[in-house]
Amino acid sequence: MQHAPPIDKAPTSSATRTRTRWTILAMLFAVTTINYADRATISIAGPSLKADLGLSAVEMGYVFSAFAWSYVLAQLPGGWLLDRFGTRITYFFSIFLWSLFTMLTGAIGFFTGATAVALLFALRLLVGAAEAPSFPGNSRIASSWFPTHERGLAAAVFNSAQYFATVLFAPIMGWLVHTYDWHSVFYVMGALGIGLAFVWLKVIHGPRQHPSINAAELQYIKEGGALVDLEEKKHAGEPSQVDVFAAIKELLSNRMLLGVYVAQYCITTLTYFFLTWFPVYLVQERGMTILKAGFVASMPAIAGFLGGIAGGWLSDRLSKAGYSLSVSRKVPIVLGMFLSMSMIGCNYIETDMLVVAVMSLAFLGKGIGALGWAVVADTSPKEAGGLSGALFNTFGNTAGITTPIVIGYIVQNTGSFSGALVFVGANAAVAIFCYLFIVGDIKRVVLTKSLTKSLTKSPIK
């Protein structure tokens, strides 16, 4: 068992601080990259898989959405597991299981017809359920390891992994499909994730338990607002600090949080368009080969990645300059969503490269505006951080259910993606409305009605 390093020596200067929190962030980035690459396997394999199994556009929409059904339903149980047993061990099992189910998806090639389709749907459901604790876990770790003025960048970095996953793996997965077959994508990505799960156990610990942190860094992050005791005693599985159902009711009755949750649904609509239908759009609407689509899809992803880093940097820069937390978080989100609406312009453009440029601008904006997890880390009550993150992710990833299906019906009924791009752009507009007119001041929520009796008698210090 790892023991916390001595923390009784006062730090002498900022130069003596370790930088362990950045190693933690690098691990979050790596895991989230694999997370999103595994989600995207189905879209890269989609055109070949669709042809092999003889699926219609609507049927493909349902297959695309299978992940999100279970992902959404498992959010609250996943958040409860994080709060009850801690992030480190819960997240390990999450990574291992989603990777195993991804690998098994490649084996449906041994089946045909309705059996193959049913197994594909079932395995995507299992991948979604296994991934449920991942982003609430990211948020908990950011809350415990990063001071407030660094948290925007930290959240932006792990969130930008969704774009880096496409930059790195879309060309590789496209090449695998082109050179071998669509089954190989699932085998390769599943094996990578299983290996990474064991690296996670080696790298991730709470701030007080980590063998590499020194007293100066611990004091620095604690004084900056990091919840360094968030993971304390979670290994013992002690009783929950809150009444779960009362806490859910209390969180949902908070106007600020409700506005954030609805906005995240709209922002995640853009994410799922990109993860599911975008490669199909390039092949079907723009006439590209799957190999070319794999490489072209990486260009907007690069823009999204750069936008994610820029949004986090801008938010923290505004915070350090003395602007309120509300201003420093809202400005990048609103600006980014305005840029994302530019994708509607692709309906009026014929040149493929110009379409790619406009899509890149849209995903640059999506990256800049993807600060929802920083807002969750800023606002979640410390007794129920996993639960709050799970509610946020439940709202957001409901878009993973609706977006693929709605776009599937639009494409099948109209024969084009024009209406689909308008649908996605309109969601960006609603997100802007939520942050400007519903959310109000961004601040940490203090639970008053849902704490257990023992905790209300002896509040956390």
UniProtKB/TrEMBL annotation:
GO cellular-component terms in the record? plasma membrane
> What is the name of this protein?
MFS transporter
Bilayer topology: Multi-pass membrane protein
All copies of domain Major facilitator superfamily (MFS) profile, residue ranges:
24-443
Which domain of life does this protein belong to?
A: Bacteria
| Any one GO molecular-function label of the UniProt entry | transmembrane transporter activity
Keywords of the record, alphabetical order, are:
Cell membrane, Membrane, Transmembrane, Transmembrane helix
SUPFAM superfamilies tied to this protein: MFS general substrate transporter (SSF103473)
Gene3D superfamilies tied to this protein: MFS general substrate transporter like domains (1.20.1250.20)
Its transmembrane ranges are: 22-42, 62-82, 89-108, 153-176, 182-201, 258-278, 290-310, 331-350, 356-377, 389-411, 417-439
- What does the UniProt entry say about where the protein is found? Cell membrane
Q: What NCBIfam families would the database entry show?
A: 2A0114
Q: Which organism encodes this protein? A: Pseudoduganella lutea
InterPro entries per the UniProt record, alphabetical: MFS, MFS_dom, MFS_Na/Anion_cotransporter, MFS_trans_sf, Sugar_P_transporter
